[in-house]
Amino acid sequence: MAEAHQAVAFQFTVTPDGIDLQLSREVLKHIYLSGVTSWKKRAIRFKNGVLTGVYPASPSSWLIVVIAIMSTMYARIDPSRGMIDRIKTSLPVSEFMTVQTQMVLSAILFATGLWLSFIFLLRYILKALLSYHSWIFESHGKMSFSTKIWLSLVKLLSGRRPLLYSFQASLPRLPVPSIDDTIRRYLESVRPLLDDEQYKQMETVANDFKKDPAPKFQKHLKLKSWWATNYVSDWWEEYIYLRGRDPIMVNSNFYTMDLLYVIPTHRQAARTGNVVHAMLQYRRKLERGELTPLRALGIVPMCSFQYERMFNTTRIPGIETDFVQHLKDRKHLVVYHRGRFFKVWLYYGGRHLWPSELELQTPQQQLNLIDIQKFPKYVGAGGGFGPVADDGYGVSYIIVGENLITFHISSKFSSPETDSFRFGQNIRQAMLDIRALFNLKEKKM
């Protein structure tokens, strides 16, 4: 419906007396609220980006470090071992930069550098701790003493109230296994599938692979692992996921259900409205990075990279390989109903639509979804605009050939004063009256 808003927000008419300009206050109000919402979202994203960037520290810890350094200076103690004086000598002297100002600014710069060094040190220690993987292979319910000590250290260095992407900079790189370990694990995996003779042949092939091409491949993998945090993910996505030709609907797509054993209402539109509204609330937290990161055992953080493409993402099909298209911000969802796709608007005045408002937008209640066989005269080509005002109409038309013109009319069920069918009948009668006038003129001539 944004197209309809844009179409009627500004109207002007050129007359002999000048230009008559008309502005829609309601549309301008919606544009203003949408802009405010957009800037709020940017501000929150920036704030959360700063919190994520300095994690496991916090902006308040920077202030504590600055106050501590300034306090030591006033106590005639130099914790920088001369570094503050060196910074001071490198600063220019001017009427705006007094000696006292130089001293304060030098202390702040030193405190900031010390604070950033502390952050990088904590991240490096946390990354080293997360490289420990023995806890994965321990029996469920049994934990060794070393694993308990390790979990305590990870919990201590993980900070408080992490955001979704707080641990991304602290996660270790995916290690490249040795050639011997790779071949050993491969032979163990195929041993139950082969008889003795086939297994001996496989051992021979594996040893030949170990001598010639394996060292070259190993160098390439190590080179890639130095500049990519995960040397497998892009290849996996390309060759396993996007080049897979199996049906996506039953093999890859995820789905959601509101309730399994309780049916609050039999109105599918109402249940869909509640599900969509809940998903919008979840997407808002996801886009702002406010979700709690997934952690094994409640402590060990997992990678959150794939969360970014949970929404606003689609898979575009190709002949040999597909590709993923991710959009930054979308304000509608697509509904597939009876062989047709519909664009359902999700925002009004810069806010999410409530479940009851979403329910009124369901395709089952739109005029252009009436059964073709039952009401063929109500169905035509093209698409239409939605109403701008709550008590108004959205009207568009398309000329098909020389003998047909099709009108699309929409209105809101919430308004008792509007009726799309009645308005359509009035347009039809007006067109018939115009045709009758032309026929009358032809008879007179």
From TrEMBL:
Its EC number is 2.3.1.21. GO terms for cellular component: mitochondrial outer membrane. The chain crosses the membrane at residues 50-75, 103-126. It catalyses: (R)-carnitine + hexadecanoyl-CoA = O-hexadecanoyl-(R)-carnitine + CoA. PROSITE patterns: ACYLTRANSF_C_1 (PS00439). One of its GO terms (biological process) is fatty acid metabolic process. It comes from the Eukaryota. It is an enzyme of class 2 (transferase). Residues 174-361, 381-429 form the Choline/carnitine acyltransferase domain. Gene3D superfamilies: 6.10.250.1760, Chloramphenicol acetyltransferase-like domain (3.30.559.10), Choline/Carnitine o-acyltransferase, domain 2 (3.30.559.70). Keywords: Acyltransferase, Fatty acid metabolism, Lipid metabolism, Membrane, Mitochondrion, Mitochondrion outer membrane, Transferase, Transmembrane, Transmembrane helix, Transport. Belongs to the carnitine/choline acetyltransferase family. InterPro entries: Carn_acyl_trans (IPR000542), CAT-like_dom_sf (IPR023213), Cho/carn_acyl_trans (IPR039551), Cho/carn_acyl_trans_2 (IPR042231), CPT_N (IPR032476). It is a multi-pass membrane protein. It is found in: Mitochondrion outer membrane. Catalyzes the transfer of the acyl group of long-chain fatty acid-CoA conjugates onto carnitine, an essential step for the mitochondrial uptake of long-chain fatty acids and their subsequent beta-oxidation in the mitochondrion. Residues 1-47 form the Carnitine O-palmitoyltransferase N-terminal domain. This is Carnitine O-palmitoyltransferase 1, muscle isoform. It comes from Cyprinus carpio carpio. GO terms for molecular function: carnitine O-palmitoyltransferase activity.
